[in-house]
Amino acid sequence: MERQRQIIDWLQQLQPGRDFSLAPASADASFRRYFRVRYGDGRTLIVMDAPPGREDCRPWLHVQQLFAATGAHVPEVLAQDAERGFLLLSDLGGTTYLAVLQADPGRARTLYEDAATALIRIQAASRPGVLPEYDRALLLRELMLFPDWYVAKHLGIDMNAAQRNVMERAFERILAVNLDEPRVFVHRDYHSRNLMLLDGEDGNNPGIIDFQDAVYGPLSYDLVSLFKDAYIEWDEEQTLDWLVRYWEKARKTGLPVRADFGEFHRDYEWMGVQRHIKVLGIFARLCHRDGKEAYLKDMPLVMKYLRHAADRYRELGPFLKLLDELEGRQEEVGYTF
């Protein structure tokens, strides 16, 4: 409540005498919170609360400037107090792509085409040295969330030396493919919960949020987030069609995509393996460390993506067998009293 009182005081200082109400807008998987400011005339704005010591809003501000310059629709910064962790932003509304697609799947083609077009704009502006590198160390650190949180904490399994060897060999192969990809700006969570529907604003969809962790890294990463979404599933035939459309438009735009679609698709699949291994670890951590158990219900779809790709590539066969072993042990533990 103390932070909320500070926000109210800050807003009153910004606009003395103007009446408003403040209500929670959303929260994400970090310590950031968002409040919707509603004024008497019906106008609404958003306050980001990024508590100092836990969150730093300056990376968000840096990426906001980069993405806004490409024509992508990101929140406008109207006022800021970076020292205290307060930002006053334009309101992109409360309707996520996820909510729309769950209610009306028939809108998927248009919405995903819009999302791919916005992504291409961002990628076309890419240059090195502007965002942190999505390098081997960071990719590996993400992969290690899987043994630390999914296997050890969530499944309650202590892997033996042979199992760890299988896992480490798989991780090395995955990283080799990931690091061989062309590099662009990467949002890093470009999915249906972070894309907002902006009705009545043709050409401006989607509204893009939660981009503060953006990096410079593998070109296919955001495509995996978009088309192999942890929160909504589409038939592979459908996602392949969207992927082909993206690939064709990206080539025409001059992005450094592979000339051969088969090679491009392989990059995309192996990037997905890295992301889904990471996401399983993140969801387990959110549950067991942060008490956010709602993420458990999304694990089966993520595991389905991971297993499907691991089954498709011979080099990942031993890792798929390891997943079988781990899941089998989970069942045995479940029946032990």
Automatic annotation (TrEMBL):
Gene3D superfamilies: 3.90.1200.10, Phosphorylase Kinase, domain 1. One of its GO terms (molecular function) is kinase activity. It comes from the Bacteria. Coiled coil: none annotated. Residues 22-246 form the Aminoglycoside phosphotransferase domain. Signal peptide: none annotated. This is Phosphotransferase related to Ser/Thr protein kinase. It comes from Sterolibacterium denitrificans.
